[in-house]
């Protein structure tokens, strides 16, 4: 396999510091990066970069998920910075020593005044025998998430949201089912109560005789009290109440038959 044109290596200072860190058990804090416009071939002998165009604190540090010996460094250049070409990058520790150096494909970083503005993100992968030797500590003011990290978090959040939605839908369906069953049971009980009430009413009303306009009574009926009426009889088929009889009482020289026909 042909060797890549673009790569990053540890400088002699970097190798010495990592060996010392391994022996002492103390980590190394990779703090900042510097960009250069000079075209270089990375060398272990290098102690600094020339023709610097930009420097800042490292934006993101993480151990690679697929290879625990890789440390990923993200170097971010904001959109309001530019007007220069980038060809090399250097990684520095807290003491300001150049620990790693690499070359990158020639990249021009424009600014808005030139008619275009864009952010630049350079990813450096450092291969170490023990990635735990690197202190993964960042300046909170410059922390930026990588696209892969954001995508992973996005997928994780989407899965959690989907799980919550499914749980909510299941609970909602359960409540709907219980409520529907309750309504069906309530309607059934209401119909039963209505039927029983109507049956009781019909049984009670059957004990009474109610007449309105011209109606006839068929069958034998038992009366607990004598029927009353304030209406005077006017034909042969009507009952005569006591008031009518008293009003038309027999006088001197009258007999039953004569008086009866006078009433009618």
From TrEMBL:
Domain spans labelled Phage tail fibre protein N-terminal: 4-148
Coiled coil start-end: none
Organism: Campylobacter jejuni subsp. doylei
Name recorded for this polypeptide: Tail fiber protein H
Annotated Pfam families: Phage_tail_fib
InterPro entries: Phage_Tail_Fiber_Structural, Phage_tail_fibre_N
């Amino acid at each position: 396999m042909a060797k890549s044109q673009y790569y990053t290596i540890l400088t002699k200072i970097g190798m010495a510091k990592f060996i010392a860190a391994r022996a002492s058990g103390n980590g190394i804090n990779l703090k900042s990066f510097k960009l250069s416009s000079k075209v270089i071939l990375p060398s272990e002998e290098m102690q600094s970069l020339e023709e610097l165009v930009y420097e800042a604190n490292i934006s993101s540090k993480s151990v690679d998920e697929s290879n625990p010996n890789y440390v990923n460094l993200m170097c971010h250049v904001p959109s309001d910075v530019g007007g220069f070409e980038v060809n090399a990058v250097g990684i520095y520790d807290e003491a300001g020593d150049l620990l790693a150096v690499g070359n990158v494909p020639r990249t021009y970083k424009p600014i808005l005044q030139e008619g275009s503005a864009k952010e630049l993100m350079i990813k450096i992968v450092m291969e170490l025998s023990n990635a735990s030797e690197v202190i993964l500590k960042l300046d909170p003011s410059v922390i930026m998430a990588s696209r892969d990290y954001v995508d992973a978090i996005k997928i994780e959040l989407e899965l959690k949201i989907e799980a919550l939605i499914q749980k909510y839908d299941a609970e909602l369906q359960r409540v709907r089912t219980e409520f529907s069953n309750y309504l069906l049971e309530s309607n059934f009980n209401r119909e039963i109560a209505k039927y029983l009430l109507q049956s009781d009413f019909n049984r009670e009303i059957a004990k009474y005789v109610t007449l309105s306009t011209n109606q006839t009574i068929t069958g034998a009926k038992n009366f607990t009290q004598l029927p009353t009426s304030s209406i005077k009889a006017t034909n042969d088929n009507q009952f005569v109440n006591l008031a009518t009889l008293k009003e038309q009482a027999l006088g001197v020289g009258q007999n039953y038959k004569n008086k009866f026909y006078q009433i009618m």
